[in-house]
Design goal:
The protein is mostly helical. It has one domain. Helix 1 runs antiparallel to helix 3, helix 4 packs antiparallel against helix 7 and helix 7 crosses helix 8. The longest helix is centred in the N-terminal third of the chain and has 37 residues. The termini are far apart. The mean pLDDT is 95.
Length: 219
C-alpha cells in the first residue's frame, strides 16, 4: 500500500467517525454504570414496584448496543470503517510514515517541536512509525474482544444454527470499552493533533436528576 496525502486525508476522516461512534459507546458505558449503581442501591424498592421487567430490558439493550459497537471495530473486511482496519492500513504504510512526512503535514513552527512527542508515541526510532507498536495494539484489541465478537456474531448479527456457548463478564465488556477509549485518543492525537485524555464526556447539566423524578409527569 502506497502512502499518499489522499490516504492520510481518508484516515483523518475515519478517525473522526470512529471517535464519534466509540465516543457514544463510552458515554453509554458511563450512563449504564450509574444506572447499575441505582439498581443495586434500590433493589428492594424496584422489586416492590415490579421494576425488574423494565430493568431487564435496559440491561439487554445496553449489552446488545455495546457488543455490536465493539464488534463493528474489529472487522477489517469490506468497505466499512473500523478502528482495526485503520490501524492495519497504517501498519502497511508504517515505513513510509516518516517524521519527515509527518512534519510535511504538520510543519514545524520554530518555537516548540510538539510533533516529535506525538510522533514518538508510535515510533521506536523517531524516524518512522513502528509496525510492532501497531501490531501490539491490533492483537491486544483482537484478544480482548474475541469472545464479545463471537457473541455478537452468533446471537445479534445472526441467529447462528450453532448456539452460542461461550461467556464474558461485565469486567470483560468494560475492559474492551476502556481499551477502545485509550486507542482512539492515541490515534486521534496522531492523525489530527487534537488531544483527548478520554472520550468520556463532561456533561454540563444534571443528567442524573431524572432518577429522582417519576417518568410519568404527575397530573
Amino acid at each position: 500500500m502506497k502512502l499518499t496525502k489522499e490516504n492520510w486525508n481518508r484516515w483523518q476522516d475515519w478517525i473522526e467517525r470512529i471517535r464519534e461512534d466509540l465516543g457514544l459507546l463510552v458515554r453509554d458505558q458511563m450512563i449504564f454504570q450509574k444506572f447499575c449503581d441505582i439498581l443495586v442501591a434500590n433493589k428492594e424498592w424496584i422489586s416492590q414496584n415490579d421494576g425488574e421487567f423494565f430493568c431487564d430490558f435496559v440491561v439487554r439493550s445496553y449489552v446488545a448496543r455495546a457488543t455490536m459497537a465493539i464488534r463493528r471495530h474489529v472487522k477489517v473486511k469490506g468497505d466499512d470503517v473500523s478502528l482495526l482496519k485503520l490501524l492495519r492500513q497504517m501498519q502497511m504504510c508504517s515505513n513510509q510514515i516518516t517524521y519527515t512526512f509527518y512534519v510535511s503535514i504538520y510543519p514545524l513552527d520554530g518555537i516548540h517541536e510538539w510533533q516529535k512527542n506525538i510522533f514518538g508515541e508510535l515510533s521506536t526510532d523517531g524516524k518512522s512509525i513502528s509496525p510492532a507498536i501497531l501490531e501490539t495494539d491490533i492483537q491486544t484489541t483482537k484478544m480482548i474482544n474475541s469472545e464479545i465478537e463471537n457473541f455478537s456474531d452468533k446471537t445479534l448479527s445472526h441467529l447462528d444454527k450453532r448456539p452460542y456457548k461461550g461467556g464474558f463478564s461485565w469486567d470483560d465488556l468494560n475492559k474492551s470499552i476502556d481499551n477502545y477509549n485509550k486507542l482512539v485518543c492515541k490515534y486521534n492525537t496522531f492523525l489530527s493533533t487534537t488531544q483527548y485524555e478520554s472520550l468520556k464526556p463532561i456533561i454540563q447539566f444534571d443528567w442524573e436528576n431524572i432518577f429522582h423524578k417519576p417518568l410519568i409527569k404527575p397530573a
